[in-house]
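Hi W.,

Here's what went into the run:
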Amino acid sequence: MEKRELVIIGAGPAGLTSAIYGKRSGLDVLLLEKGIPGGQINVTDEIENWTGVIHASGAELADSFRKHAEHFKAEFRDVEVRSIDLSNGRKIVKTDSGDIEAEAVIIATGASFKKLGAPGEGEFTGRGVSYCAVCDGAFFEDQEIAVIGGGNTAVEEAVYLTQFASKVTIIHRRDSFRADRVAIERAMSNPRIDVIWNTVVEEIAGEDMVEKLVLKNVRTGDITELPVTGVFVFAGMDPNVSFMKGLVDSVGGGWIVTNERMETSVEGVFAAGDVRDKYLRQVITAAGDGATAAMAASAYISEQLHIQGLLLEPEHVTAFVFSSIDEPQARLASDIEKALAGTDARLVLLDGYRNKRIVEKLGIKELPALAEFKKGDLSRQQHIASLDEAVKFIS
Amino acid sequence: MIELNKDNFEEEVLKSDLPVLVDLWGPKCGPCLALMPQVEDLSHEFEGKVKFCKLNVAENRKLVISLRVMGVPTFLFYKGGEIVDRLSGAEAVPDAIKAKVRDLA
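Here's what came out:
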């Protein structure tokens, strides 16, 4: 089976940034993507909140991210991930063109716009129902259309669609937008945009193309109809996790829970970007997650190698685990080393400050400590307060 | 794959002896561009059994609207000059396209 150090699933802003950071920290990086790199920004008209770039199209930004990752020689592969097998502490990514064993995996698969679930939605997809304004906006030249949703994407794409449509009605289930102020002001001052508040779509109806929406006011229960030829759905998102349901802890509809190091509930599996349970889903926060995940994955991989080589392969070895930033502990480390010089006891010094995960894994509650390994198994460990205690433990 | 336009549509699609897949795509449609290489691969796999065509919606707006298509990616499947199946939006994934092509062949 193919073996790789870091496998990143998804090449949006999070995955591409992980690839850049992963390569720069010297890892062998394989980036899996089922479409073209870039993720959701590929279907976004304009990005105005990526620091340092006042204005770019989503596709331009996606292209520059991809080139950046290619510059550091990250390997890209166009495949679809079917599942991940995490049995026996291994991490095997199963794709439609073979299995790959990874030392660490970063899940950066992002999110997709939810289906509304209204009757007619599936039937009229491609015949008036759309989830991508840049793809389909031009079909609606001089027509009246609707946008469903109230977040940044809905409000910004509504403005974009006024380039084509004669009128865009935003339909939002609440009485205010969640979008940022600049986006809201731009929409509200656009003469081609109308807003219907507190309203949801009951049905998308027509003969063989979309002709109207049946709307319901959630406060009054009133049913009205709105004649439109197109409807763009940007209301709510779902994480793209169908290939890994239940493998790691998640909340809500599958949003992956991580700590601040982007570690999931499974060791060596990280998550970054929109697929995470997080406060703000934007290009810039996804990229930040990607950087953190790659650095945490890199630390994880070197820790694993460290444990393997130093502790698990020798016949019999004792590790002194201490904090390198604590002077008395560092002094004790060198004292123990001196005391054992000339004996046949094999000692390894391990910086617990830089390798917190190993400390946790060995069950060490307080540093410094000694841990003894026989044939790859931890046989005992103990907190050590003095050189005497250390010598007693070892002999 | 054969590039379609209003001049060759009838000849290549409606009068074709082989069943036909029409891939409607747009230059700004990320999902369409992502699918393109896989559809190209399928066209080789089904060579001589199904004719593969692509139609750029940005350059052939009227023709596309006459086909009752208002969104991409959309795949239309023709047999004997009639549309027998279609796939649009999120349904248009490689596995689904391949299954429908197999039905045609």
